[in-house]
Design goal:
Elements (H helix, E strand, L loop, with lengths): L28 H14 L6 E6 L6 H12 L5 E7 L8 H4 L5 H7 L3 E6 L3 H9 L9 E6 L22 H11 L1
Parallel strand pairs: 1-2, 2-4, 3-4
Helix pairs in contact: 1-2
Bound molecules: thiamine diphosphate (TPP).
Thiamine diphosphate binds next to loops.
Cofactor: thiamine diphosphate
Family: Belongs to the transketolase family.
Keywords: Thiamine pyrophosphate
Length: 178
């Protein structure tokens, strides 16, 4: 967050190697990913496209326009992972603009839905590693998570969306995590 830093607030493909598209303004990731997945289908390319979205981010309407297109085009090589931590910038998602029943919403848009514990790496590998060929639908993985997991004073606490730990908090967090 310093002037001229490579690490400005939102990742920028012009400064950072490995970043394929600028995001950060919420609601851009899924529409871009759907475009990439459509391109793969049109060119007969078998790559898979993965996109990670926040749950609060899903309040942006652009996501649902993209989801509708993904379902319509049966983009089985597209996977959306929703970080379902139930917190957004200033409050809980359900207190702001409720998303539940979130799984039914994705199904209604033509997705196959898997709901998992997002902290369970084996479960993540299972659902992400499964061969999508023949599924005929894009996949939505709703990963239930706890924001700040593993750091007692950060867990499920909305103030850490933008929080910066002081030296003592940093030391305690590292002690709890390692
Ligand atoms: C279009 C747009 N509006 C507002 C913001 C400001 N903003 C940044 S993160 C955030 C909350 C996002 O919530 P969520 O997707 O649940 O992410 P998490 O809280 O899990 O980090 C908001 C409103 C933004 N980056 N882009």
């Amino acid at each position: 967050m310093q002037p001229l830093s490579m690490l400005n607030g939102h990742p920028n493909r012009n400064y950072l190697p490995g970043i394929e598209t600028n995001t950060g303004p919420l609601g851009h990731g899924l529409p871009v990913a759907v475009g990439i997945a459509i391109a793969g289908k049109l060119t007969g390319n078998d790559y898979r496209t993965f996109v990670l979205t926040g749950d609060g981010e899903l309040q942006e309407g652009s996501n649902w326009e993209a989801a509708m297109a993904a379902g319509h085009r049966k983009l089985e090589r597209l996977t959306v992972i929703v970080d379902r931590n139930r917190l957004q910038q200033g409050d809980r998602t359900e207190a702001t603009n409720g998303l539940d029943p979130l799984d039914d919403k994705w199904r209604a848009f033509g997705f196959h839905v898997e709901m998992i514990d997002g902290h369970d790496h084996a479960a993540l590998l299972d659902v992400l590693g499964a061969d999508p060929s023949g599924r005929g639908k894009p996949l939505c993985v709703i990963a239930n998570t706890i924001k700040g997991k593993g750091v007692s004073f950060m867990e499920d606490n909305v103030s850490w969306h933008h929080g910066v730990p002081n030296d003592d908090q940093f030391a305690q967090a590292m002690k709890e995590l390692i």
